[in-house]
């Protein structure tokens, strides 16, 4: 699902988004193997800054590259962006092309369908959602009670929402959407077109009820759409740790010893997991990479405040390893021991 983009962002917000996009561009130039993901993030920030031509330039550059990894996703993002600043005919042509080529992943379908929906092309949006589900959901997974993987939930939920706007009766796909809904509020209520009227009410009880519904819907989307990258904790191998501390002794305040560093990683991840945070991971840093990141931030590697930003950047580049490992898998710390007998030990 595409986030709503403000039509007229505040000047400070616009400047912040442009600055972040330019930082991502610099990072992409330093790490060409991760440029596609980083430039897609930069394009999203340009859209939020209402600098849509600059976003389109990124999409065009990626599509012109012979190494583009997700061309259907890039085309869908380009179409959604073009439509927002007056290039409707080109956007429609791109969406038609996406439907014709029938990509095997949900994201391009969702973006294309929601772009149509946002411009009141409800029948076309409905048909796009339906085509995607018929292509991507095997027949064995369409029976009531069958598990539906999370990446397909936005297709089911989006199609249900559009059908409610169209006044269409429930069908088999809507029944699967109801099963995919994890909130206490039914989808029929969440997607009721009359809810829009409640937003203009002066009755506090009606407004509070609508706030409760919106919170439930937001929770549903948060569960349905996985994070673009994990919540990751930074790990240094023993040799990199020694090099880091030798070069930047002030970081001993953050890393008093290597053993303490390893213990703090496991402790932090367990605390995050206990608090309900999912999609956790570990990223392993290197001193040259960290120094390059600090330079891109016009800062010094001795600044401990850079460490979590560096970890986030590594995660955004797809360098995170999921945590926790299986008990019999090799421990993340590099000891060579099984995780269950090493840092995964409850003792």
Question: Can you give a write-up of this model?
Answer:
- The protein is mainly alpha-helical and 347 residues long.
- The chain folds into 2 domains: 155 residues, Alpha Horseshoe (Serine Threonine Protein Phosphatase 5, Tetratricopeptide repeat); 111 residues, no CATH class.
- It is built from 16 helices and 3 strands.
- It has a 3-stranded mixed sheet, sandwiched between helices.
- The protein is globular.
- Poorly predicted regions are 1-8, 222-227
- Which strand order does the major sheet show? 1-2-3
Number of strands: 3
The class by helix and strand makeup works out as mainly alpha
Distance from first to last alpha carbon: 43 Å
> Looking at the structure, what is the overall shape?
globular
Mind telling me the C-alpha Rg? Answer: 23 Å
List keywords for this structure.
disordered N terminus; 2 domains; globular; Serine Threonine Protein Phosphatase 5, Tetratricopeptide repeat; 59% helix; 16 helices; 347 residues; 3-stranded mixed β-sheet; mainly alpha
């Amino acid at each position: 699902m595409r986030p709503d983009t403000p039509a007229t962002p505040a000047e400070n917000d616009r400047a912040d988004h442009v600055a972040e996009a330019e930082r991502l561009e610099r990072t992409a130039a330093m790490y060409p193997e991760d440029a596609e993901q980083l430039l897609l993030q930069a394009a999203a920030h340009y859209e939020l800054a209402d600098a849509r031509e600059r976003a389109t330039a990124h999409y065009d550059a990626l599509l012109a590259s012979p190494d583009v990894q997700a061309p259907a996703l890039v085309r869908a993002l380009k179409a959604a962006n073009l439509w927002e600043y007056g290039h409707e005919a080109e956007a429609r042509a791109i969406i038609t092309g996406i439907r014709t080529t029938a990509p095997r992943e949900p994201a391009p379908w969702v973006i294309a369908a929601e772009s149509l929906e946002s411009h009141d092309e409800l029948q076309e949006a409905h048909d796009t959602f339906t085509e995607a589900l018929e292509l991507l959901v095997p027949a064995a997974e369409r029976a009531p009670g069958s598990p539906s993987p999370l990446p397909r939930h936005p297709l089911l939920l989006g199609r249900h929402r559009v059908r409610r706007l169209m006044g269409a009766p429930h069908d088999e796909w809507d029944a699967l959407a109801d099963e995919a809904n994890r909130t206490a509020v039914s989808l029929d209520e969440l997607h009721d077109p009359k809810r829009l009227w409640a937003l203009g009410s002066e009755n506090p009880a009606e407004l509070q009820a609508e706030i409760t519904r919106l919170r439930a819907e937001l929770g549903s989307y948060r569960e349905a759409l996985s994070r673009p990258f994990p919540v990751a904790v930074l790990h240094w191998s023993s040799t990199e740790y020694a090099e880091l501390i030798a070069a930047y002794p002030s970081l001993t305040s953050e890393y008093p010893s290597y053993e303490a560093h390893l213990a703090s990683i496991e402790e932090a991840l367990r605390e995050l997991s206990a608090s309900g945070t999912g999609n956790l991971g570990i990223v392993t840093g290197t001193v040259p990479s960290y120094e390059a990141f600090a330079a891109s931030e016009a800062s010094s590697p001795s600044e401990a405040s850079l460490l979590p930003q560096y970890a986030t950047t590594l995660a955004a580049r797809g360098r995170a390893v999921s945590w926790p490992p299986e008990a019999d898998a090799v421990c993340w710390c590099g000891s060579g021991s099984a995780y269950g007998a090493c840092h995964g030990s409850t003792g």
